[in-house]
Amino acid sequence: MNNILDIYESLADSIEEIDDFRIYDFIYYLGINSIDKDISKEEITRLINVCKESSDNFIDTFKLARTLTSLVYKEKYMTLDQLERVPSESIKHFYSEEKMYELRYYFESYEEMVISPKEIMEGVSYTVARVVHNGYCAELHYCSDTGASVEYGTKTSHDMWENEVEDASWFNKDLSDDYILNRLNCLYDEEFSDKRITNEKAEEMNLIDHILAKHKVDDIVLYSNDNGDLIAFDDVNYWKGKDFYDFMFKELFVYNREGKVELIDDSDYKRLEGYRKQYEEKTNEIEKEIEYE
Amino acid sequence: MNKIKALKELAEVFGKYDCNIYDFCYYLGLTNVKEDIKNKDLIVLLDKCSELSGEYTDPIEVGQSLANAVYEDKSITIKQLKKMSAERFNDWYMDGREVGNDLELDEEREME
To answer: I need a surface site. Which of A80, A199, B55, B77 has the fewest CB within 10 A?
Structure first.
């Protein structure tokens, strides 16, 4: 035992020789390193900072570093970016409650219909559906007295959400479950997604808006989802990409004897055909992939 | 990033020895309060730290708290500490060690 004390003394001396040394950083480092030896220096620094903010006298610092590192790099339940978004109070809460495993579900992703519109009764308040992803949520509520609303939630801790509510006048009880989930997904993307609509997509949507206006169609709303797909909704229907172009070319447009749509300029029509072709090619590629599988 | 380099180098040195990170933390906590603790007392203190600490204690803080109780506050002797139960220690540790909450073996004192 005396031998090991000599080793501790020698290590402690080595520590003293390092400028600006912080022993807790070293313990975190050892904890991180014991889970994954290949983490970059930049990410180790970020992990150490998370550990530092979440520690107190009632937390085993080495174990904390191991648990958090394992969560991100071994079990891969969340990314380091996400871990940095978990408040230190929540990490302390899970630790003290012996529920560190619950951190796995902190950024859970799912979408669900809570109740189908056809089952809604008068005089009762409902949460109809929700889309939850990455600590953000879009939730559709309905009450016959006050109408429908969408609540946008941002998770701020293990038991707290910050919410903003807006009217959802588009909702009616004849909508299908698929319609509602698709529309909620679009609203979620619009509110929370980091991805910006490309210029090309914006031009395409502007052109469609212009053409719909020419046809005096004012009840169709257009969205571009995170995959860059076009989705259109009216009061009861929704169309994705190629289906919407099929709707326009086959149902909306009125062709004259020369096969032209009188309400649209030739150049606009050609541009529209170009976009339509892109969706057809995309659909063919997907079908080929499915066949190949 | 130089800081991480220093940590890495130290971890490599640390890895060469077959020593336990917790024991090393207790050691640092203990010697932070008193640098010249006798080896025989250090051995007792390290064993006790290891016995008393758990996942709701910070290992450096455990070493530091016990050394404080023994050498600064003198509220407990090494001999008394040997008989300290984990339950008694936890009550003391969780209940704020530095706010007039002495680590004492009440029963023993009464007997004395």
So the answer is: A199
